[in-house]
Design brief:
By secondary structure, this protein is α/β, with parallel strands linked by helices. The chain has one domain (14-232): Undecaprenyl pyrophosphate synthetase. It has nine helices and six strands; from the N terminus they run αβααβαβαβααββαα. A six-stranded parallel β-sheet has the order 3-4-2-1-5-6, sandwiched between helices. Helix 3 (34-55) runs parallel beside helix 4 (74-97) and helix 4 (74-97) runs parallel beside helix 5. The longest helix is centred in the middle third of the chain and has 24 residues, at 74-97. The protein is globular. The protein binds 3-methylbut-3-enyl trihydrogen diphosphate (2 copies) and magnesium ion (MG). One 3-methylbut-3-enyl trihydrogen diphosphate is lined by residues 19-21, 63-66, 68-69, 193, 195, 197.
Length: 246
């Protein structure tokens, strides 16, 4: 039976987050420059975005550029920014055809002005789409996000807008970059690395983790179905006992 047909549509993760890793190694294996890997990585972005929307996944969040990635060689950073602009221009049609809303999280002011403009333009054009929200994590770092959250809440406390006793999990959620998104249900990382690399630390508190050796440019929709199938075989207990869930 084909993988997709084995999925239980009643038990899909509401929010899938992906650490898209391995572009550089993919290119190196082929004797090419890292840039070639990034270019091919954008094809996987399209395939996985379309497949997720088609399945009925409500939220897909892709880690595209971390706060730490600014430390990469200048030419690589420039190439990634250039690719981002061209992908946004090219994929606006894919987003509209599939009724997908674009969202972005991260320290967006650090992005080049041209990227910011293109990003805001696509976000604006797709704001009424409702099948799926595609969130790009750009210049994103979870510690940066938490710092920003703490600063905002402390300012409100100082100005008597909120009292410290009133700070609970929902107040924190409302101040994160991910304020409109539910917690992550399934976190996927490609390329064989088994680490979080400063991604959504608060939001993955109870996410199921799925690691695969496949490099991001080779990651196909069948690999996505495989990850979801694995997720569906797990029992999410959230601290309770198995018997309590029955
Ligand atoms: C992921 O692939 C893309 C970004 C982090 C922007 P990498 O560029 O990290 O590829 P590897 O890990 O070096 O193979
Ligand atoms: C994580 O990948 C960031 C993105 C996928 C955008 P990295 O390749 O930057 O992660 P580390 O440095 O190997 O942990
Ligand atoms: Mg990497």
């Amino acid at each position: 039976m084909i993988l997709k047909d084995q999925l239980n549509i009643e038990n899909l993760p509401k929010h899938i987050a992906i650490i898209m890793d391995g572009n550089g190694r993919w290119a190196k294996q082929k004797g090419k420059l890292r840039v070639f890997g990034h270019e091919n990585g954008t094809k996987s972005v399209r395939e996985i975005t379309e497949a997720s929307a088609e399945l009925g996944i409500e939220n897909l969040t892709l880690y595209a550029f971390s706060t730490e990635n600014w430390k990469r060689p200048k030419v690589e950073v420039q190439t990634l920014m250039r690719l981002l602009i061209s992908s946004l221009k090219k994929e606006i049609n894919t987003l509209q055809e599939n009724n997908i809303k674009l969202n972005a999280i991260g320290n967006l002011e650090d992005l080049p002005k041209k990227v910011q403009r293109e990003l805001m333009d696509v976000i604006e054009q797709t704001k009424n789409n409702s099948r799926m929200t595609l969130t790009l994590a750009l210049s994103y770092g979870s510690r940066d996000e938490l710092l920003n959250t703490i600063k905002q809440i402390s300012t409100k406390v100082k100005n008597n807008i909120i009292s410290p006793e009133k700070i609970d999990e929902s107040v924190i959620n409302e101040h994160l970059y991910t304020r409109n998104l539910p917690d992550v249900d399934l976190l996927i990382r490609t390329s064989g690395e088994q680490r979080i690399s400063n991604f959504l630390l608060w939001q993955i508190a109870y996410a199921e983790l799925f690691f695969t050796n496949i490099l991001w440019p080779d990651f196909t929709k069948n690999n996505l179905y495989e990850a979801i199938l694995c997720y569906q075989k797990r029992e999410r207990r959230f601290g309770k006992t198995s018997e309590q869930l029955k």
